């Protein structure tokens, strides 16, 4: 009788048996894994050491708790729960990519309790956004301190070297900007460039569908190539080269070359009138002979409707750079011109750029971009843990009011100056670097 009450496994469906076994095995596996899993909070001291904040999450300066290792690390906490597609892409690429000028992923931590993902990197004390900001501030204080030309050359060479490695391995970065170009502080890799934030990166060896279908709009507006703004369907390595050209110009002048009032807003429409207007105001309107395929761009009809060639007749890169004391016959200008070529098919490649005569004249590029000199740039400041969302909203509200006031004949200066100046002071006492940047550039 006892036997008859036992489940007869010969009469049960085989999948049901597997499901019973899987539940038991899965529970045991998870329990064992949770017990063995290393927890970030047990290994690292990082509370109150937040140095970065953005849409991706938060970055903390961290040290090991055991005291055996005095090395400083960067802990990047991915926003949200679980692993997003962007985080998956970044982790997958960084696990494979190994180059002195690409940030190295040391380890990935998965927190079982709150489903957070942490990425561990070597800590970089500086980045180009803060370095350029330092020099821009010196200019504003009437004590101009130009970036040393040798340092500019070393920075550019290492950026190109890192991007050449990515491109040689069929990877587009797609979000190059000063904030994503890190520079190591004191230590064994002093003054070395590290290209970071691979969340937008893509493999492009044999795309099954147009890249524009996957992410209609990528790259921060100011560093976005004109073909992207005109809706290019199969963009190439040339978009990274354009962004490098923008960064190069910014290093030479301490000003974003294509600074536009609009903020970095995600939209499904790639066409951006104000950004194109800014590019043409610096570069001039592209002649048909200079960019023959411009007529094939999806947004070309809109371009014809919204723009007049004659408006930009007196604009050129030569005139813009001459204002910043860069001579048109200098090797530095000639390379910049090749990087900022409007036609992506004629734009120089990273490999060609690395062989440019600019890098053969003195001073030669160095592994330590500071060339052994004392580093004048301050260390990163720690940010408040609380996210000051209301301050960001105030900034956008003021900018909206400013635009409305200007459209109705008012003076944008009168409306803008006082409230934004006050906001700047409040941000400097605890707001995020991103918000400080938005306010400062609007002034």
**SS summary, helix count:** 17
Roughly what is the average pLDDT, rounded to an integer?
81
- In terms of structural class, how would the helical and strand content be classed? alpha+beta
Query: Helix and strand string, N-terminal first?
Result: HHHEEEEHEEEHHEEEEHHHHHHHHHHH
- What would you call the shape? globular
- Stretches with pLDDT under 50, minimum 5 residues: 1-12, 211-218, 388-443
Helix content: 40-55%
Based on CA atoms alone, the radius of gyration comes out at 26 Å
Give the CA-CA distance, first to last residue.
89 Å
Kindly state the number of beta strands. 11
Residue share in β-strands: 5-15%
Largest sheet: 6 strands, antiparallel
